[in-house]
Amino acid sequence: MATQQTSSAPSAPAPSRSYRQARSGYGKRSVPAQSPPQAADFALLLERERYVAGYVDHLPDGAAMDIKSLAKDLPLYGQMAIGTALRTLAVAGHLRHVRCRVETLGQSRWVTRTFWSRTARDNEWWASHLAGEGAAGAPDAPVGPPVPTPQEKLAALAVPQQRKPAGPAPDSAAPSPGYLALARLGRIEPRLALSAGDCAALERLAAEWFARGVDADYLIQALAAGLPALIGSPVGFVRRRLTDKIPPRLPSAPAAGRDASAVRRPLLVECAECGRPGPADALPDGLCRPCRTAVQAGAPDPADAATPLPGERDVHALVGSMRNLMRTP
To answer: What is the mean pLDDT of residues 286-310?
Structure first.
């Protein structure tokens, strides 16, 4: 006797009050103007993506959205499956990973936020929204002053404050901003550590970046993003990136009447697959060009290799169906 088949999709667990909170400035950030929650939300997604989307949608702003945290809270899937689900949700228009620089209390740092939309959005909407988020007027979580270590406290007590003698004017041969940025690069990414001679040889190329309006943090992030597994020559690799990835020239903003609140901070969209940063319009569907090409070519999903299910995990077909739906009036 034939039995009635019911949906095998598990319902996403509602997050409890003890959700994992991201570090200050990180985590989930909901976009405005969303429709109220409905039972049909995410109905067109596949089972795994629907399960992850239902859980993420109930998380409050500021909750942890990294793959490891979600994999701990959703034991049905491992980290590779969660990563693939987040990529598919980005392609479907529900999320974007964004890296932006936060400056508060005299400190600067880069944070990664996940902008979430219950309603699927197209690439034009995301580009417009994220361009507005780049304005400095958007509220940021405060960054507290650094806490001194016990060794620093002891050193401060043991060494009395000395009177600084009046000395000559600052050395006119001080390191250039490009030299200093290249010197900092190795502290942030040890695989790109450069010698003093390397920094001196490359500072002219770095100066060309600064001449186009970027700062040291942008330069370092662009050089250190999406590194290959093996780097034979750090100086050669950095020289190639300084040449190939130099940003375009932008018209300078008029200085007259410029309001400090209108200053924009750098904001980069991260590829949902490999994490490579770039402008929003350069990462349609939340994917960089190489990853988007791999998805469209039907590259196998390693998270599905262990438990292949027929008819599921066809990301390319999902992309086409979601785009068609978003074009429907």
So the answer is: 65
Is the pLDDT assigned to residue 140 strictly greater than 50? Answer: no
Which tokens go with 6?
A: 């019911």
Tokens of 288: 């960089």
Q: Give helix then strand counts, H and E, for the chain.
A: 11, 5
Name the nearest CA neighbour of 90 among 278, 226, 288, 265. 288
Nearest CA to 25 out of 102, 93, 81 is that of: 102
Bridge-based pairing of strands 95-104 and 27-30 is unpaired
How many other CB atoms are there within 10 angstroms of residue 52's CB atom? 25
What's the CA gap between 48 and 140, in Å, rounded? 33
Q: Answer whether 301's CB lies under 8 Å from 315's CB.
A: yes
- Tell me the CA distances in angstroms from 86 to 83, 92, 328, one per residue in order: 5, 10, 24
Structure tokens at 73: 């809270």
pLDDT digit string, tens, across residues 94-131: 999 888 777 655 667 778 888 999 988 888 888 888 88
Contact 79, 67 (CB under 8 A): yes
How far, in whole angstroms, is CA 250 from its chain's centroid?
23
Q: What percent of the chain has pLDDT over 90?
A: 21
Alpha-helical (H) ranges within the chain are 47-58, 67-73, 79-91, 123-133, 150-158, 177-188, 196-210, 216-224, 234-244, 289-296, 315-327
Of the candidates 112, 81, 72, 74, the one whose C-alpha atom is nearest the C-alpha of residue 96 is 112
Rounded to two decimals, the pTM is 0.50
**Positive or negative torsion for Cα 265, 27, 83, 34:** negative
Per-residue pLDDT tens digits for 11-62: 555 554 467 777 766 788 898 878 888 888 888 899 999 999 999 999 988 8
Name every residue whose Cβ is closer than 8 Å to that of residue 189 and which is 6 or more positions away in sequence. Answer: 223, 224, 227
8-state DSSP, 137 = T
- Give the CA angle between residues 121, 17, 273 to the nearest 5°: 35
- Is residue 201 within 8 Å of 182, Cβ to Cβ? no
